[in-house]
């Protein structure tokens, strides 16, 4: 099984590449597993001919697209680039995959929803993105569905990990200088550790599941609750003031409740993702 990973130096891409390399070299290696990592500097997914040539040259069995323009606020001002990376890139990947018979695994986001639901979103719920990031990611999903034969779209949310900027790291940095913080309390989601997500993804790969699946760590919280848990685990004495999202001005409009229901993932795999608090503890203790 030859697996090509785009955006392989990003937060999720790095953990995924590391996991698959570990599987290749473990005492009981996964037979025939080969990883081709394609970071941004090796493959720019917005260049149609390069994407096609690269994929047809390597003829992977599976392409995992971890490349994306993920700065949600910047997507508002750099709309053309956001569209190229998040919508057109997946289209080029899908078309080349179809040509060489590869399966595509595309990573998407909770931000395809508008956040007005009073329960966690299931895969079949109506999408209605509020931001350019969400809109371009949704276009990417549609392009994958339209242009390739076999695909898995994995929607994740609120990622944290060792290899990229994320909320946990930001809290950690802020706490070095500020003992008082104001954090939004009316925005809810499911924090998800990239290490856990890559293990879940590997299970889905082996099961050859096709379609759309939500995968996050179990449970959900507000940003305020998340920050409190971070400092509780770290043993930091930080005074956190809950504020409304309307008081936190930012260019992009974000969903208020973007937590995802992962029952479908559990039904397919028999796996229950561990609670986000446990994953967070592991992550913080490994820093
Ligand atoms: N982070 C989250 O909270 C979150 C939540 C839900 C879903 N997701 C989804 O999860 C996936 C992985 O996200 P992440 O957090 O790992 O993001 P990330 O750390 O920003 O990684 C994205 C990678 O894509 C690369 N990239 C950007 N433009 C590219 C291009 N034109 N061609 C090739 N590569 C390009 C980036 O390279 P450069 O750094 O060189 O630009 C980076 O290495 C994305 O699909 C994202 O939408 C993320």
TrEMBL record:
Signal peptide: none annotated. The keyword Acyltransferase does not apply. This is dTDP-4-dehydrorhamnose reductase. The keyword Iron does not apply. Residues 1-284 form the RmlD-like substrate binding domain. It is an enzyme of class 1 (oxidoreductase). Belongs to the dTDP-4-dehydrorhamnose reductase family. It holds the Pfam family RmlD_sub_bind. Keywords: NADP, Oxidoreductase. One of its GO terms (cellular component) is cytosol. GO terms for biological process: dTDP-rhamnose biosynthetic process. Pathway: Carbohydrate biosynthesis; dTDP-L-rhamnose biosynthesis. It catalyses: dTDP-beta-L-rhamnose + NADP(+) = dTDP-4-dehydro-beta-L-rhamnose + NADPH + H(+). NCBIfam families: rmlD.
